[in-house]
Amino acid sequence: MLANRIEALVYLAAHELRHLWQAARLTDRRITRCVSTGGSAVDRLLPGFLIFLCVGCGANNQYECIERTQKDVPNFQASGTHTEVDYVLLHDGHKFYAACDTTTLDKLDPTATCAFRVLRNYECVQPTDNKPNKALSDLRCKDDEGRPVYLYVSKKE
Predict the structure, then answer these.
(1) Which phi and psi (to 5°) does residue 79 adopt?
(2) What is the model's pTM?
């Protein structure tokens, strides 16, 4: 929702700036002379600048890892324990408490890891249910080396 508001504000600002520029161009002879000889720098750069602004309005998929803890948890319906890594991720002013279970990694994806490091940003997306043959998780991310990280979110603050 925030991205839509930002896009609307950028569009309105760009639209208003274009009208102001056109009005100034018509009343200033120096600018009119530049335009008649092939266009001014502003005429050539304004479309590229507006595209640059709109590219920044896309969805923000960056999550910052602000805490990482590792613990041994009992295996489900089996003896022994396995490692579970808990993360606190910061995204759009919210904290996400998530877990990465090391016992399911090879079953989900042979290249998957739990390799997030604190004080780094990672790209994550919330998977849609319409993708068959994919691992079930709340967040699908990429670690520093581009390998998948599957996280299960327990709480959002």
Answers:
(1) -85, 160
(2) 0.59
